[in-house]
């Protein structure tokens, strides 16, 4: 469902993107080319700051927002997702937040008030809260990363993890084309 927010902002969705009919895209959301938004995803850009300002939620080209993902932002803060990035099933991305390009965010992970640079991998059930994760870092499943985390203890993304991330992004790009071709026929 595509709908306006109370301020009247309507999502802008590239014609080449696929948004599952069960997803909710609300307000000042920009969905770029060849993006896949899966079933029951909720992307809401509807809160404003004290001055009535709101920044957009931007989903970069060739990225995928999988089943049950929730994206929202406190007081109209910006959320950006780079290109060729995968946000896996039931993850929560709560702004302010920026996620770079070629990033993988695993199942049930939570991102809040953070910046994750290009080519990072955050595995399932991890939490990244209140910190900046430089490019190429790997966060293990169930790990919590915050401002007190010593980043020197985190590993760099392995070739295997990078290839997995790229495969997920490529697979979901194929789904965009497939679903667009069948127009969600039953």
UniProtKB/TrEMBL annotation:
Source organism: Halomonas llamarensis
Pfam families from the UniProt entry: Hexapep
Protein name: Carbonate dehydratase
């Amino acid at each position: 469902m595509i709908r306006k927010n109370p301020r009247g902002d309507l999502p802008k969705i590239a014609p080449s993107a696929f948004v599952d009919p069960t997803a909710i895209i609300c307000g000042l959301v920009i969905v770029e080319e060849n993006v896949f938004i899966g079933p029951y995803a909720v992307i809401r850009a509807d809160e404003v700051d004290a001055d009535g300002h709101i920044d957009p939620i931007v989903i970069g080209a060739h990225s995928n927002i999988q089943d049950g993902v929730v994206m929202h932002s406190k007081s109209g803060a910006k959320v950006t997702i780079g290109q060729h990035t995968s946000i896996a099933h039931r993850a929560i991305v709560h702004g302010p937040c920026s996620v770079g390009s070629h990033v993988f965010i695993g199942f049930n992970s939570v991102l809040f008030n953070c910046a994750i640079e290009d080519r990072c991998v955050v595995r399932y059930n991890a939490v990244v809260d209140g910190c900046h994760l430089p490019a190429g870092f790997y966060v293990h499943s169930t790990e919590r990363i915050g401002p007190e985390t010593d980043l020197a203890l985190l590993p760099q993304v392995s070739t295997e993890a990078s290839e997995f991330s790229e495969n997920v992004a490529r697979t979901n790009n194929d789904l965009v084309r497939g679903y667009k071709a069948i127009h969600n026929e039953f």
